[in-house]
Specification:
Elements: H1 9-32, H2 35-42, H3 46-53, H4 56-63, H5 81-95, H6 97-106, H7 110-131, H8 138-158, H9 162-166, H10 169-185
Helix pairs in contact: 1-2, 1-4, 1-6, 2-3, 3-4, 5-6, 5-10, 6-7, 7-8, 8-10
């Protein structure tokens, strides 16, 4: 029987830095999170952060490296598109603190805002091209979808605004799905 090799110490150090960076960026924003604070939380010397990630910018890019994994439109019945997409995004927000970190930083810091725009532009617009009626209109439709997804995420997961945070997932899906579906599939007004 083959025994898996023990994890290397560098892997543990890298993981500790990433975890500390997620916390610091989420709590302090991009500008407020310092390499020294991240290193302190990770229990390492600040030079190790630079050694593994090159710079604070490199670390931030790695921390907020997000794959939205948008479902394949060929596998979704047209009348179920909104429900599938809203459910998918709620699962992403609940499963992965990276999106919450990115949203928190994105609303307070220009570098975070640019990264958040990039994630949605680079991943949601191509999906809207596949889902929608007119590929040329995909950026506008993707923006409308993002307004619903990001708005609910901000209220539910960052601000923890009463009704949004307290609604069941089924209720959120029931309310948002028709709007998201309309943004993608409805004829232009």
């Amino acid at each position: 029987m083959e025994v898996a090799p023990a994890p290397r110490r560098s892997d543990a150090t890298r993981a500790a830095i990433l975890e500390a960076a997620r916390d610091r960026f989420a709590e302090d924003g991009y500008d407020g999170a310092t390499v020294r604070a991240i290193a302190g939380q990770a229990g390492i010397d600040p030079s190790m952060v630079i050694r593994y990630f090159g710079s604070k910018e490199g670390l931030f890019a790695r921390v907020v490296d997000v794959a939205l994994d948008i479902p394949d439109p060929a596998r979704i019945p047209a009348d179920d598109l909104g429900r599938v997409l809203v459910t998918h995004f709620l699962e992403l927000w609940e499963r992965d603190g990276v999106l919450v970190t990115l949203l928190r930083v994105g609303v307070t810091d220009p570098a975070g805002a640019e990264r958040l725009r990039g994630v949605f532009r680079d991943q949601l617009v191509p999906a809207a091209e596949r889902f929608g009626r007119d590929p040329a209109d995909a950026p506008r439709r993707a923006t409308l979808v993002a307004s619903q997804i990001l708005g609910m995420a901000l209220l539910r997961y960052v601000l923890k605004f009463g009704p949004a945070a307290e609604m069941s997932r089924a209720d959120v899906v029931a309310w948002l799905a028709p709007t998201v579906e309309r943004y993608i599939t409805a004829p232009e007004p």
